[in-house]
Design goal:
single chain, about 260 residues, alpha/beta, Rossmann fold, Alpha-Beta Plaits, 2 domains, six-stranded mixed β-sheet, two-stranded parallel ribbon, 7 helices, about 25% helix, about 20% strand, globular
Length: about 260
Amino acid sequence: MKITTLYFSATYTTKRVVEAVAANLSNEVTTYDITNDAPTEEVAIPADEFVVVGVPVYAGRVPAMAVERLRRFRGDNTPAVVVAVYGNRHYDDAVLELHDIMTECGFRTVAAGAFIAQHSIFPKVGAARPDAEDMADIKTFAAKSAELVANGFGEIALPGNRPYKVPGGIPIWPTASKKCSACGACARLCPTGAIDPSAPKGVDKTKCIKCGRCIVVCPTKARRFYGIKYSLAAARFNSAFATRRANETWFAEEHHGKNFEY
């Protein structure tokens, strides 16, 4: 079974989840990391392959940048597993939105998952996740997905609303402390080009999507969210979402008789 993985993963946790799903399906994997290096031309994925697509949840939605880049891929009734990774608050409409995007692009959703990872803005929430228990959930999820693809599947019902929620946020942005060595790693790897290589301690607030990429790639741990607004928001958020949430999965209805031959 040939697998293609597509993921937008600023802090690398969505990458980890998608790769774990794919590893439990096949050892023949083609990868598209659309965080920084999306294809410029349309990519066709045939019906006899299997796609695993993952995105982080930003304010209950699929990141707008990921939406634009995912639309460069086209399926031919190609089976797809869709995965939303979120920081222990809620996935809101993101799972449904991701399914809708892939459907519009010619893919058929066989299974969907909402998996927990460390929150990218408030890292005390969901800390150390995905952990061993999460990985066990992912293995079970992948096995059921493969079974459905092999034996036949129908439609899938997913939670969420149309129209999707309007994303919100608080006016905070990551910046650098005195520990910044001006190495330029954050500027090179920022998905939106929001950091000027000649002045890497700051950030262009009109471009920054608060994805956390600059924080995780900083070798001196100089970048993070600062300020009184952040501290107050973090205290509320940490208290409200401290309880461990379970991963959630959904599967298409089973059909007897194979949809695909491998």
